Structures are given as structure tokens and as C-alpha cells.
Amino acid sequence: MNKNKTYPLWFAAGALILYSVLFVIPSLIGIGYSFTDWSSYSDELHFVGLENFKTIFSADENYIKIITNTLSFTLVTTVLKNGIGLAMAILLTKKIKALNFHRGIMFMPNVLSTLIIGMIFSSILNPSKGILNVFLRSVHLDFLAKQWLTKSQYAFGTVMAVDIWRGVGYIATVLIAGIMSISSDYYEAAAVDGANGWQKFRSITLPLLLPTLATTTVLNVIYGLKVFDMIYALTNGGPGKATTEVLYTAVFKKFGTGQYAIGTALSSVMFVFMVIIGFFMIRVMTKDEVQE
Amino acid sequence: MKAKRTVVTIITNAIAWIISLICLIPLLLIVFNSFKDKLSAAKMDLKLPAFPLQFENFSVVIEKGKLVQSFFNSMIYSTGSVALCLILSALAAYVLSRNATKLNSFLYMFIVLGITMPINYVALTKVMMFFHINNTRGGIILLYAAMQIPFSVFLMHGFVARIPIELDEAAVIDGCGPIRLFFIIVLPLLKPAVATVVVLTFLNTWNEFVSPLYFLGNSEKWPMTLSVYNFFGMYFKDWNLVCADILLTSLPVIIVYLLGQKYIVSGMTSGAVKG
């Protein structure tokens, strides 16, 4: 059988062209445009060298804060989603009634639009009328009822908490699949040797779950760096000066004000980050497929 | 010993219910308040709606929120891009998996890298304008399909590898050409992967609103998610209407989720877990 004839390369052409033209090429020409003064104010383009990147990395501007915001959002949500997700996964692989119901519900926030989740939480977290603060006051915990989204010291934590609420079910679902793929022989052998629950978790579940945890970590990191919807819907970067601003919301604002060059330069910084992570991720995700 | 075990069972069950409740609260808020009148919905609490249920909230938002138009838009965007993405990804994954030459392995990696790559929306406007697809429905469909191709190819690639190649060989000996081989022999066997791609791509494109935000200036072309947000901006005091709008916008994804849950979970966990 002639493989090149049976499996002609033009079969792949459609996907390759569409993906390259609308996905890869914009990223590449975007890097080119980030060395210019492209904006909506003038039709002419001038080469300005590293000017845009100097602006981004200069101390007088907010961009360093935006980049550190993005990184800390990624770090905090990744750690907490993995931690809470693991606890939920262990709980939901125990003998519990209506197990599939709980698993289904837990995943539900992931299928709703983030924009809609943001709208609902803006009501739940309303300082005076929101049900969270109403509930806290009704149980006499008034001191806990804060201005969640409008006070700058709480806003970032609140946004991350809502994002964790939304994303943790997905991570738990992946981890449940990971736990269920562990052979029960190990646990039976451990039970014969008289191991308790904690010992079983430490010596069997955790080590065998490490590859899955590596993947969920990578997925979380990719998501965290690209986060846009959640922040756009909840705070849109505010309150105050860039309290919760992240890279993608900043890019969108630069686009809105016509400062295209800075916008595309910010995108390019992210592009370099993500491609490096991408290479690592592909190695994790396709490692086992090759062996099949 | 037995008593202790019963206590543990009760506690674990209780924790599971608390978690489910926390996940459900926003959804319950939407459902309850969409049946209330303006005054009681203003509180946005978890009280059950009083009778009579305010069904007219729905007819009001369908009219004021221009939901028929935006539902139609969302449907076109989702079904169009699902179909396009599915056929292109299946063809590409099939060839790249079956004929794994050095070049094809590289092309596969090149596509899969798109799972992590961020889109440079600003520069993308230039490309969209170049092809005159900025601010058009066709442009959005093409863009959505392009965005979903990397993950779909990744998912299908793993599936194709599990179909025995002997089937292809037998068909070729019987004189089957490449196009018939794919559509008549291989594609039917890819059904689970096809279902997963369809369900996931539908959910993702239905919920996507960033691209319309950048590329659709004209509100007549907006999908449901964007028009619900716009509606929220205008009627933020009428939570009964906002909730009714949200409920109608979310209904398609909730239905798809309930019907296709199995495929969603298998798709989203593939690559993460090797069982």
C-alpha cells in the first residue's frame, strides 16, 4: 500500500491553511507590528525599534503591575484549583450516594458562559444587597461582609475566588478520571498490610496521580495566563488603577483606544511565554500517545 | 467500629451535598428570579418565586433583548463552525496519524501548539481586513473553526491511532480510493471522537464572546452571550428580565451538557489521563 497515495497530504490542507492564516500569521505579523507606531490616529507606519517594549518594561507605567498580576493570578488559581480539586476528587471517588449527580453538578459551572457567571456574581457580591453579605449579616458575621469587588484590597482575591469556584470542578473531574485509572490491586494489597487511609493516599494515590497533576497544572497555567472573560465581566481591571488588570484585558483596552502597537507588543510578550509553555505541554500530553 | 463508619459516611455525604449546593446557587438564583416580578427580583435572593409565576418576563426579553435575532446568529456561528472544524480536523488528524512521516509529525505538532498559543487579536484585525471578512458572519465562523482546530485535531489523532490499519489495507486491496476509504470506512468508526468534538466545539463557540467583541461592531450580528451582556448594561435594575435573558441564553448549553455529558468529560480528560 502506497501511504502517500492512500493518505494524501491535501486532506490536511484545509485545517493547516485555516489555522495558519487566522491563528499563526496574526501572531507572527503581530511581532512585526510591535516594532512600529501603529495606531488608529494615523495611516502611516513608522519603525520605532524597541520603543514599545521599553514602555512596557519601564517603571513609570502600569505594565509591570499588569504582568505581575497575570502571573500571580496564574500561580494562586493553579495551586488552589489543584489542591481543592484533589480534595474533591478524593471525596467523589468514595462510596457516596448519588455520586454521578454530584459529579455532574460540580462540572456545571464550566459549561456556563463566563460572562454570565460574572454578571451573576456581581449581584451575589454586591456590598449592600448581595446574598453573600446578607447571609453573613444574618448569621452575625457582619465584620466579614466586605465590599468584595469595589475595595481595591479585596477585589483581586475575590476575582480569583470566583474563578476558582468556576474552574475547580473541571480539575476535579480530570483528577477523578486519574484516580479511577489506578488499579484497585494496590489498595487491596495495602489493606492486607494494614495501611490506613492516609498511608494509602501518600504511598499509592499521590505518586500514581502525579502525571495527571502535571497535566492539570499545565492546563491551569495556560488558562491563567490567557484569562480575560472572568476579569472583564467582574471588574474590568478596576477598581482604581489596574488593581485587577491582566494582560488580555490590557490588550483589549489598548485596542479600544486605538493604541494598536502597544496592544500587539503586549500580545507578543505573551506569545513568547506561551509558546515556551506549549512545547513543554505537548511533551506531557503526547508522551503516552507515541507509545500506543 | 460500625458506628464510626456510619458517622464517616454521613459526614462525607453531607460535604458532597454542600459542594453541590455551592455549585448550584448561581443557577438557582437565575431560575428563581427569572419567574419573579421586578420588585422581588431586585433582592436577587434564593426565595422561591411567588405565584403567579411571571412568564411574561420571557416574552419581554425576547422582544426587548432582540433574542430571536441573536439566537439565530449564535446558531449560525456554532453550527457553521462545528461542521467546518469537524470535517477539517477529522481529515487532518486522519492523514497525519496514518502516514506519520517526519514532515507529518512536525505538522501535527505545529497544529497542536495552537492549544496553548494566545491569539493576537489586534494583528488579527489586519488579517481579517485583508480578506474582507472583518465584521461579517462568515468571518466569525471561519475564526471560530480555526480556534477549535488544534484541540479537535489532537483529540481525533489519538482516536485514529486506535483503529486497526488492517481495515484500510483490506479496503485498498478491494479497490477503495482515499476519499471513499475515509468517509465510508474510517469516519463511522470515529463516532465517539466526532461526538466529543461536536459537543465541545458547540459549547465553546456558544459561550465565546471575545471575537465578536473585537470583530463585530454591528449589534445585529451579535451572538446571544454578547447581547445578554449588552442587555444587562441597559436593564441592570430589572434582575427579573436579566435572569430571564440569562436563562434563555444558557438553556442551549445546559441541554447540550445534559445530553452529552459523557462526551464532554471524556474529551476534556483525554490527554490528561491515560487509562
Report on the architecture of this protein:
The complex is a heterodimer of chains A (292) and B (275). With 292 residues, chain A is an all-alpha fold. Chain A is 70% helix and 0% strand. Chain A contains 13 helices and no strands. Chain A is globular. The two termini of chain A are 22 Å apart. By secondary structure, chain B is mainly alpha-helical. Chain B is 76% helix and 0% strand. Chain B has 13 helices and no strands. In chain B, α7 runs antiparallel to α10. The longest helix of chain B has 33 residues, at 2-34. The radius of gyration of chain B is 23 Å and the shape is globular. The model of chain B has no long low-confidence stretch (mean pLDDT 87). Chains A and B meet through α1, α2, α5, α6 and α8 of A and α1, α4, α5, α6 and α7 of B.
Mind telling me the C-alpha Rg of chain A? 24 Å
Mean pLDDT of chain B: 87
Helix amount of chain B: over 70%
Largest sheet of chain A: none
- Shape descriptor of chain B reads globular
Beta-strand segment tally of chain B: 0
- The average pLDDT value of chain A, as a whole number, equals 85
Counting helices, strands and paired strands, the structural category of chain B is mainly alpha
Indicate the proportion of strand residues of chain B.
under 5%
Radius of gyration of chain B: 23 Å
Biggest chain pair contact, residues each?
A-B, 101 and 103 residues
Strand content of chain A: under 5%
Number of strands of chain A: 0
- Label the structural class of chain A: mainly alpha
